[in-house]
């Protein structure tokens, strides 16, 4: 009847025209060449070589051609797809090579970089100087004794001959543990360890007790509510103040070197009789700064002397409270400030440095041998 209907029997399909196939191939090759990374190349592969790519879609149209034209079209598509897959393979290899080179550079370990970025800690200078102070006495045969920081009022005051109305017992000086009738305080000094040692050790007793002590002071350059003392106690038959003097002399030599004078000034403590404040000659100016016209000394404030602490012959009342025969035994005691010792021995001028916990303050002290 009529000529064959073109739409049902096409002799030509647009997508299969040679120029269309060449364009699809060239677009694909351009996109592949433009891919600057493996992810982009993957996108190009999907767009130009995937199931829905122009060449794949064109391939599906082959069946619509008259049989005689199919082989020719198939060949052309095959050549175009071959060129695309060849380009993909080549670009894939190039980009992988680039990535490998980059990884080699980026993941290289620079062995010259600093490795110890996390600073190491350091022992606190108060701890080390306290041990050093105690060691001087340990070398003379003393033992190290300990007592609790939360202490019975009886050990902290009563047994040490503080009368019930002694001002040190007030809340202005002492931290009481709630409620007030617990009879517990934060120890205000290390002296209660004297009584504890006498109650628990056989005589004679030679002990030092380093430790933390508490008073209701505000923190400032020279005070802290938490501080440290080194207590000393020697109870034996026939001990005198001369032995105390000798022990302090040995301490000063052990900590500051030989040839420094020690002096005692009369004082008062309820638990010693007689009592004294003990000073050592300034180890920096050796007393010279008191002379007229001499250069000032920062360590002793040009006093020539440095205050070490308190001492004295143990009051027989303390011995009796601790169950010691005060007719037979006598002895002496002392209490030295650890912070004070650190301050003048090392020129630490501000208490804040000791309590703030900055490792940069503590580290240099670790160098001391
Ligand atoms: N406990 C006294 C204080 O904290 C210091 C002291 C003085 C201790 C004389 C002693 C001593 O052992 O004999 O101020």
TrEMBL record:
Domain of life: Bacteria
GO CC terms, sorted: cytoplasm
Main location per the UniProt record: cytoplasm
Record GO biological process: phenylalanyl-tRNA aminoacylation
Catalytic activity: tRNA(Phe) + L-phenylalanine + ATP = L-phenylalanyl-tRNA(Phe) + AMP + diphosphate + H(+)
Keyword match Ligase: yes
GO MF annotation, one: tRNA binding
EC class of the enzyme, as a word: ligase
UniProt entry keywords in alphabetical sequence: Aminoacyl-tRNA synthetase, ATP-binding, Cytoplasm, Ligase, Magnesium, Metal-binding, Nucleotide-binding, Protein biosynthesis
UniProt remark on cofactor binding: Binds 2 magnesium ions per tetramer.
Chain positions recorded as Mg(2+) binding sites: 273
Compartments where found: Cytoplasm
UniProt-listed Enzyme Commission number(s): 6.1.1.20
Domain Aminoacyl-transfer RNA synthetases class-II family profile: 127-364
InterPro entries: aa-tRNA-synth_II (IPR006195), aa-tRNA-synth_II/BPL/LPL (IPR045864), Phe-tRNA-synth_IIc_asu (IPR004529), Phe-tRNA_ligase_II_N (IPR004188), Phe_tRNA_ligase_alpha1_bac (IPR022911), Phenylalanyl-tRNA_Synthase (IPR002319), tRNA-bd_arm (IPR010978)
CDD domains: PheRS_alpha_core (cd00496)
Obligatory cofactor(s): Mg(2+)
Family: Belongs to the class-II aminoacyl-tRNA synthetase family. Phe-tRNA synthetase alpha subunit type 1 subfamily.
Subunit structure: Tetramer of two alpha and two beta subunits.
Protein name: Phenylalanine--tRNA ligase alpha subunit
